[in-house]
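Sequence in, structure out. Go.
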Amino acid sequence: MAKIVYYSQTGQTRKYVHKVKQYQAIEITPSNFEIEMNEPFILVMPSYEPNIHPIVTDTAAEFLETKCNLTLCKGLFGVGNRNFANLFCITAKVLAKEYNLPLLHQLEFQGTASDV
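Output:
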């Protein structure tokens, strides 16, 4: 069974992930990112412009580069606010491009029933 790994700065991403009850969720933070995964997972990321708030992207990058995590990552979900136009789900888009991972889904705020 796949797991969900996520980063949540304000709690919106955490609220979405907790709605997805069929998967075990693991939260990464700037002080807790060296988690070694041993089974496939999806990475769920909030939207923060990398040049303004780099800690979010950097934390996820360091997590992906820990041991075999990159090879076990099946793709990314982006969480954001459509009002930010081209910055909607920007963190997931940047990581997907940088690590050649699929961007599986993009959702707004805490997601809707169809996002779960």
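Check: The CA atoms of residues 70 and 99 lie 8 Å apart. The first strand starts at residue 3 and ends at 6.
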